[in-house]
Design goal:
2 domains, about 600 residues, four-stranded antiparallel β-sheet, Rossmann fold, SAM-dependent_MTases_sf, alpha/beta, eight-stranded mixed β-sheet
């Protein structure tokens, strides 16, 4: 319930006259003059200034609360993944706001009169990154004990919840002292009672969306601004901003240990050389090292190497974008640790009438870079290769730490906008179906955060890829999903609507007798020509196709074909359209949870937790 503005609705009381004051015309006149002087001092401008200050503090408090909520879920993403960290996040936030709003009077009664609740806000905010760090590392790791579904709830219940509840209680207190909107425009009482709560929630949600946009790191931003946009640094900046709405107090000294810990000992503080050194000290005993890391537009991106086994991976939040062996020389290409990326290269082996015979005359569009396994192979074959990658950090790391050759065309932007613009340039006045296409091969390989970007699997996007593919062209689409859930069925239905002739292959065979989750990487090969799956055939690879690679000897030719019975969901699938993505999105959480478990088996928990 919103706080009652009882003081604002009561009639002003007449000050009591002390017993020892005699009531006389002179004293009555003095009292009238005193009241008149007070009324004269209470000018409209002064009252308006007081109201503006009160509402300004309310807006600032709600903005800081919204920024804290965004920073919290971002800080949990490297340990849990963006989707698992968000499953119960809104519930925790709403519960904290309701608790603070409804119990502000009780909270104030628990504190001494000379210790207003607002004075504790900077302290609560300063300890959020420290407590989150301790709950993600050491013998008690919330992610290890509670898993990806409940771990974020435990962490935010102990960090974000108290901060938001206290902030909202201060908001309620400020609104109690301000003149309500119903007093100004004379609204009915029941509307006036609801307005503070509705208005506060609206301001909070607006600030939540604005601070989420403001937190996106821009490569062109000044270094200080970019650093303050990183996860732990942004939490420290929010704690400092809370000081502007809290009365100065010696209580702030209690925040110093938390700040010193964040600056000197928190290994999650991106951009700090001593923090990276701290991370590597913690990983040294397990044979791992972080070579480089960066906050970017798709999440926390880092290059991690296993020194004992001799391989290197590219990480984004709680998922791996690819990896390659470092103990084998690149001759002429590196040996990847994942066979699925080699399977994508089999687009060159599909038999299609009129297909280009000479690789030097072929062109390829790669959507989603990863570490560049497939693009590097296409370039090695002499194919003109264009790579579309939304994250500049991924392209930088693939070029610097992996074997991505420089002789390719890099397009660093969203693939949806790029392909739509390319189709429009090609088609002119023609429809997309009338475009002959400009690419012999298209490789569609996008995955991050434990799920596929929905916009890149809609009917409209796939139709653009169809338009960009030559009549004799071949497309390979990598999709990672759970065969027990509906999204993979919906994606396949959408792909087959655009490309009728397709064959699907898993990276590994399905585990016999398994009835639980069946999370797997699959590659779908399709052509413009043909109306049946049987029209998709592969030629026998030649020695030159293997690029002197042992991994390609085993994985280049797809082996584990998917049949209709492998799709175990009984729900009827719908085509994924731009304005109808609910079916694909509704199971993203379960798919991301399954992916989290797979990632914890591939890389030890400590590597994920120390960042």
């Amino acid at each position: 319930m919103p706080p009652k503005k009882a003081a604002a609705r009561q009639e002003p009381s007449i000050p009591a006259i002390p017993d020892n004051t005699s009531f006389s015309p002179e004293s009555f006149e003095r009292e009238l003059k005193s009241l008149a002087a007070k009324a004269k001092d209470e000018t409209w401008a002064r009252a308006a200034r007081r109201e503006i200050t009160a509402y300004g503090r309310v807006i600032l408090l709600l903005t800081l609360a919204a920024a804290s909520a965004n920073a919290s879920v971002a800080a949990l993403s490297p340990v849990y993944g963006a989707i698992p960290a968000s499953i119960w996040h809104s519930t925790v936030v709403a519960s904290a706001l309701f608790t603070g709003w409804s119990s502000n009077l009780h909270l104030r009664r628990l504190l001494p009169a000379n210790r207003p609740l607002a004075g504790f806000l900077p302290i609560l905010a300063a300890y959020v990154p420290a407590v989150q760090f301790f709950l993600s590392n050491g013998s008690f790791s919330a992610s290890t004990w509670f898993g990806p579904r409940w771990g974020p709830v435990v962490v935010e219940a102990l960090t974000l919840f108290p901060l938001l509840a206290a902030t909202t209680a201060c908001v309620a207190t400020e609104l109690e002292s301000a003149t309500g909107i119903d007093e100004i425009v004379r609204l009915p009482r029941w509307i006036g009672d609801a307005m503070p709560g509705i208005g506060s929630w609206t301001v909070f949600r607006l600030a939540e969306s604005l601070t989420a946009v403001a937190g996106t790191v821009s490569s062109s931003a000044p270094a200080v601004v970019s650093w303050l946009s990183t996860r732990v640094a942004s939490q420290l900046a929010i704690a400092a901003a809370y000081c502007t709405v809290a009365p100065f107090s010696r209580l702030w000294l209690y925040a110093v240990p938390a700040i010193l810990h964040a600056l000197a000992l928190n290994s999650h503080l991106a951009g700090s050389p001593w923090a990276l050194a701290s991370t590597n000290r913690g990983l040294k005993g397990d044979g791992w090292v972080v070579l480089d890391r960066r906050e970017s537009i798709t999440g926390y991106v880092s290059v991690v190497e296993n020194l004992s086994q001799g391989f290197r991976v590219l990480r984004c939040d709680h998922s791996l974008l690819g990896g390659e062996w470092t103990r084998f020389p690149a001759n002429p290409v590196a040996e990847p640790i994942y066979g699925v990326f080699v399977m994508l290269e089999a687009v060159r082996l599909v038999n299609v009438p009129g297909k280009v015979e000479n690789d030097a005359d072929a062109s390829c569009l790669v959507i989603g870079l990863g570490i560049g396994t497939a693009p590097a192979a296409f370039v090695a074959h002499g194919i003109d290769t264009t790579v579309v990658e939304i994250d500049p950090a991924v392209h930088d790391f693939a070029s610097q730490y992996f074997h991505l050759p420089s002789n390719h065309t890099a397009v660093l932007e969203d693939a949806v906008g790029y392909t739509a613009r390319l189709v429009a340039e090609q088609s002119g006045e023609l429809s997309a179906d009338s475009v002959d296409g400009c690419f012999d091969y298209i490789v569609h390989d996008v995955f991050t955060g434990g799920a596929e970007p929905i916009s890149l699997f809609t009917l409209e996007f796939l139709q653009n890829l169809h338009a960009l593919l030559k009549p004799s062209g071949v497309i390979a689409i990598n999709y990672a999903g759970d065969f027990a859930l509906t999204p993979i069925k919906a994606v396949m239905l959408t792909i087959r609507t655009v490309f009728p002739a397709c064959r699907i292959f898993r990276e590994h065979p399905r585990e016999a007798g398994s009835t639980g989750p069946d999370f797997a990487n699959v590659v779908i090969f399709c052509t413009k020509q043909g109306e049946r799956d049987a029209d998709i055939t592969f030629r026998t690879p030649r020695k030159a196709d293997l690029l002197n690679s042992e991994t390609r000897k085993h994985f280049l030719v797809p082996k584990h074909e998917v049949v209709g019975a492998d799709f175990r969901s009984t729900e009827e699938a719908r085509i994924v359209r731009r304005n109808d993505t609910e079916q694909l999105a509704e199971s993203h959480a379960e798919s991301a949870l399954g992916h989290w478990a797979v990632m914890r088996r591939v890389v030890p928990a400590k590597v994920w937790e120390l960042w």
